[in-house]
UniProtKB/TrEMBL annotation:
Domain of life: Bacteria
Binding positions (cob(II)alamin): R64, D142, L166, L177, S224, C249, D250
Enzymatic class: oxidoreductase
Species annotation: Methylomonas rapida
Binding site for [4Fe-4S] cluster 1: C196, C199, C202, C256
Protein name: Epoxyqueuosine reductase
Location(s) in or outside the cell: Cytoplasm
Keyword field: 4Fe-4S, Cobalamin, Cobalt, Cytoplasm, Iron, Iron-sulfur, Metal-binding, Oxidoreductase, Queuosine biosynthesis, tRNA processing
Role: Catalyzes the conversion of epoxyqueuosine (oQ) to queuosine (Q), which is a hypermodified base found in the wobble positions of tRNA(Asp), tRNA(Asn), tRNA(His) and tRNA(Tyr).
InterPro entries listed in its UniProt record: 4Fe4S_Fe-S-bd, 4Fe4S_Fe_S_CS, QueG, QueG_DUF1730
Amino acid sequence: MYPTASPDFQPLAEQIKAWGMELGFQQIGISDTDLGQAERHLQKWLKHGWHGNMQYMAEHGLKRSRPALLQPGTHSIISARMDYLPESPKNSHAILEDQAAAFVSRYALGRDYHKLMRNRLQKLADKITAAIGPFGYRAFVDSAPVLEKAIAEKAGLGWIGKHSNLINRRAGSWFFLGEIYTDLPLPADQAAGNHCGQCKACLDICPTQAIVAPYQVDARRCVSYLTIELHGSIPVELRSLIGNRIYGCDDCQLICPWNRFAKLSAEADFQPRHKLNNSTLLELFEWTETEFLQRTEGSAIRRIGHQRWLRNIAVALGNGAANEVSKAALQGKLHHDAELVREHAAWALQALAGKVASDTT
């Protein structure tokens, strides 16, 4: 058993931060385990039902907001961030303005970040062990009920913006987070202050108006939820608002003025694969299930499966130009084995027919 947090652990805390930088993290911070404010915010969010069908957000009792319940003996939390932006935001804007192009959230263009960050956190824990001997810890990368953004905010890595993402004054918001829960009594860093001010650009830009108020996001309307988390049919009233976004949405980050300070990632694993940053909707709509599985191997995209992939692209095609090539591609999916695909292909054809009708009147 270690003593209560003490200045004696300050040198170790500084060494941990230095090791983190050596391992490729852009910043390391340390927080205590008091997440009472975040717990109240989470309970309010759940009470509104804004988590939709993400039942895992309501499970595990209070383990999400009380770290010691998840990992007994936790005294301090080491929080790490890693930049992932693979290319200039100019390309994102260009894709969103091109109805024929497919937009994939920038975090998913390369390999799945979970394994890479988990390995780096393990190496950090190994360095600590080599320096002080065995200690109690457990590493997480979006792999358990952890309030990672609230923890990172307390650890001084940034503040939670009005869009609910973490923002860093010197690095914007294009980064991943990971944590090490530990029984070490490390001194906590000063929590980050909020610098959103009067800005509400993220609220105004949200294509589905999912940010219902500052710091309050109704996930049921969020494009990322609709294209990734939602397993069934996308609500009809929201389909036309999705545009050409087929996996996630970055609009609130692209508009955020703090992202002018964001830096491109040097990690090879985060670089675009299979031209996912420069593909048309029709090209991706032609992928068979076998091709989908091959080209999304090691990618976060694979988790939605081929049927939801086609569902999303069908909606995007329905939001595009009413040309014969798009119509033919959609008609080819009217006899797909999955009702989910047939339904959204039929909707898209109806949407395109409506555009033709309006153009002739």
